[in-house]
Amino acid sequence: xxxxxxxxxxxxxxxxxxxxxxxxxxxxxxxxxxxxxxxxxxxxxxxxxxxxxxxxxxxxxxxxxxxxxxxxxxxxxxxxxxxxxxxxxxxxxxxxxxxxxxxxxxxxxxxxxxxxxxxxxxxxxxxxxxxxxxxxxxxxxxxxxxxxxxxxxxxxxxxxxxxxxxxxxxxxxxxxxxxxxxxxxxxxxxxxxxxxxxxxxxxxxxxxxxxxxxxxxxxxxxxxxxxxxxxxxxxxxxxxxxxxxxxxxxxxx
Length: 253
Description:
Helix content is about 70%, strand content about 0%. By secondary structure, the chain is an all-alpha fold.
């Protein structure tokens, strides 16, 4: 006999409301990855393959800021606008969504990332899909720590923007989330790529055909996202404080 609690959780994961959330995550993640990875291809094309100059970082940083703000905004009221497995992991660690729901979010995000990179590969035939790389002066451990710190800042901003006690207008939160993502790319782009997003790194690696150093873009961001969630919910905003449900709580099961 299936336990009642397990059955109710499973029903919540496959409900119509949950399916709408998964589709929303797919669309928003697809749009973000298309713009983020596509901006690297565009900058490489404009600079004749030499992306070592400042514009090689500036263009992707601006694209990341604009694309993430828009992607989070369009799914904010539906799925919570995660667009990133690190954000989803943080929400699960904080108990704002269930683990089964988080797994479906991850699946939607990774499929969307692969599809976006495939679209770029098929349409921009003279340019290969770029992957995130570690600079020669960086170690794998150092790059993972850097990506973890960047993800911490990003996820902490997401939790702050998602705090209903601030009473911010709907459009304000996604804007600040985009700002911090763009700033992180400017700060770490030349060293680790400034991914902060395991799905984005996974999609480009899958299409490119190389998973070298892929663990850097999963371990660091996931640990950083989980730490940000624990710090915000247990140190900055303790659980005993009155706090309304976040936008992403709609399908928490």
